[in-house]
Amino acid sequence: MTSTISYPKVRRGDSVNEYQSHKHGTVKLADPYQWLETPPSQSQETADFVEAQNKLFKSYMDNVSHKEEFKTALTENMSYPKFSAPSIKKNGVAYWSENAGLEPHAIVRSSKNLDSRESDVFFDPNQLSEDKSASLATAAFSKNAKYFAYGISRSGSDWCTIYVRPADSPFSESSGAHETDKGRFPDEVRYVKFSSIGWLRDEGFFYQRYDVAEGAHGAAHEDKAGLETDANENAKLYFHKVNTPQSEDKLIIEDPANPTYMWSVGTTDDGRYVALSVSKDTSRRNLLKVADLHDSANSDITNLKWVDIVGEFKHEYDVIDNDGSTLFIHTNEKADNYKIVTADVSNPSNVAWKDFVPETNAVLSDASIIHHDKLALTYTRDVKSELMVHSMQDGSFLFRLFDDFTGTINQVTGERDHSKLFISTTSYTTPGTILSFDFDKHKATQSVNEAATVFRSTAVKGLDPNEFTTEQQFYTSKDGTKVPIFITRHKDTPKDAPFFLYGYGGFSISVLPFFSPSALTFVKHFRAGLAVANIRGGSEYGEKWHTDAILDKKQNGFDDFLSAADYLVDGGYAKKGSIIVNGGSNGGLLAAVAAQQDKKNNIAVSIADVGVLDMLKFSQWTIGRAWCSDYGDPSKPQDFDYLHAYSPLHQSPLIKDKLYPSMLLTSAAHDDRVVSCHTTKMIAELQHSHPENVKLARIETKAGHGAGKSTMMRILEATDKYT
What we know:
single chain; 723 residues; alpha+beta; Rossmann fold; Methylamine Dehydrogenase, Chain H; 8-stranded mixed beta sheet; 5-stranded antiparallel beta sheet; 13 helices; 39 strands; globular; serine protease; Pept_S9_AS; oligopeptidase activity; hydrolase
């Protein structure tokens, strides 16, 4: 069907790029929209293109008759209390994030007595900027909760600036502007990206930063970071001492010979060990070094005596905590589903390793040490969470918590010196419940059930869980692999209904059951369905589930997703030609590939959010080089061949034998992870090569990859997507 939309006229340049193919030798490929790689902040032509696309999108949406009705319903359904599990720090104060309903950003609240249910504002991100585009990117309390370090991002950029304030100095509406807030220290730690805040006792913290050209990001409060596309290389690890200028920060480690190395530091609860994790990409593989601060040789923090615990990039190792000289480590070494091992580092020249909690047939996704001598282990079995408690003495199983719960455990908070554990849970139809377990009460009663309670729950007035049903099914993919899929419908959803099909399938990231007011409003409003396919490339079934859909096996994930669409149609859930496919980031790639490979015409609309769409150049921009572990390296001839075979940007003009479905591509100017030229080049090519149906782009000017968006921005974005 030919589109009646008049697309903007876009210049097609004569750029040609040369690649090396294993099959064909030197290959020359036209790149007519290469000029769009220059960001809008540096090119008026690109800025005009973005403005024209946004103007086209707005004019189209202005004619959608049910848009305002949906927006009203969604706004009402977003107006419910949302909160995280409380975390009790060493100062005896509990902290958690909470949004009362439609506040732009969740507020960090605090309470000295959780039983009273009274709380105070500790940090209100809504006071950071008038337009609410500034947000908390990261935060961490010092070991004794004396100080609070927090990173502020502008317009959703991955860059952030870290500030420090005393834990007894809240930031609220009465504090005034953050720039002049006297309740914080003058510390301004800039150019931080992809970094943890690794506190060393209450003295200071380790952080990762990159060098930035002088003046490129302007002042810390200005909105200039994240507009560039330069590759992020040569990260450096620094130590910042509280209440000192950044110019005095101490360089801990750098490695110019390995420009892709990234650094992450944590310290054990007792402050004895500093653990340094070194990664070079997004794979589940890292090096691990530790420094013993009890060793007199480590008195100088800038010249630590590192012990190489793991010296090769073969597996993942994450230090949980220690017991004396014994480190407890979460790893996938010889365990695709992960296990707990110990490493005795008392003799650095001969580290003693031992299996502690063996691998099981469920995936061990998270581990923490709680209540003196216990391990809280979160497992995923068939994409549903389970929480087990094990002994820290010998690793033995003690008991399971909340064994009647079905859904996702997305947060477990507990400290070694506190008796209470808090667990945040959710599912496709329930917005959130905080469960509590009291180990002191369990010791007194010897009853798991009596010690377990519902601490807090929430509900959405317009989305009654009883109106919806969720079922898990398993379908067969192209190569015979059984793939799980969750299907959620309203009680009035008929057979052969329109369906929203979501997927991700990459980077070992699992898509566990989640609550989405936007998706459920769509299901209820249009009597439709929501399907989430747990395709390969994630880690729902461990690391092998991930590696079965990376590199030259990436097509397996695409086949899984298309097979999910087949299953919905063949099973009578969805009407043929009525499926909306969607994904973000790597999932945006998935949605775009599904549009081009859908031979059965099951897909009516493809929505690719912040998608990776130029598979031959992704590695050149910002942090894209790190993704080669999942995608492959386009500069290598063998990798080029399979990347070119599915690259949405390059396959689009080659496809002549099918009609593309309608497509919406979304991106943002401050997306410095998947840069916006993936979207701008792709929409220009689609409007030129496949003007049939509707091809539109929605490009935010004050947002990034997704994090940090205000509630209203999310409502407006969801309204545009779902209508």
